[in-house]
Design a protein that fits this description.
The protein is mainly alpha-helical and 134 residues long. The chain contains five helices and no strands. The protein has helices at residues 4-15, 23-40, 44-51, 60-73, 77-89. It is elongated, with a radius of gyration of 20 Å.
Length: 134
């Protein structure tokens, strides 16, 4: 079963994205990374996934490998509990007031547009039906 928390942690750690983070967000991410690195000293697969370079331009493969390794390492209940505790603190402290955060959750059945600055109009879907003149 896919664990969305482990997936989110893997993406956050593999992209090492810090732009838009507050100082508290950077500290929370550093704390999370410190925990994972400490666990990796005794976990070969996790250690390898942390130092691996992406093999595709998108870098998604690194997050997938890290997610697998985190799942395996999280079989240790104390590591899993501490990882989730630190993650629970992370989202609440991450975004600066001037940063853009786009989130989609739940089941989406239609189109989704995520943007910051738009000049002009946005139209999603089929163009409106034109009514014939009578």
């Amino acid at each position: 079963m896919d664990d969305p928390i482990l997936t989110a942690i893997a993406v956050a750690l593999s992209t090492r994205a810090v732009e838009g983070l507050t100082d508290a967000g950077r500290e929370a991410l550093a704390s999370l990374m410190h925990l994972v690195r400490r666990k990796a000293t005794g976990h070969r697969e996790l250690r390898a996934s942390l130092v691996a370079e992406p093999t595709s331009p998108e870098g998604d493969d690194r997050a997938v490998e890290l997610r697998r390794a985190l799942g395996d390492a999280a079989r240790d209940p104390s590591f899993d509990q501490e990882l989730r505790r630190r993650w629970a603190n992370f989202p609440q402290t991450t975004v600066r007031a001037d940063a853009v955060t786009n989130t989609v959750s739940g089941q989406v059945t239609g189109s989704v547009v995520q943007a910051r600055d738009i000049s002009g109009g946005v139209h999603v879907g089929l163009p409106p039906q034109q009514h014939p003149r009578q």
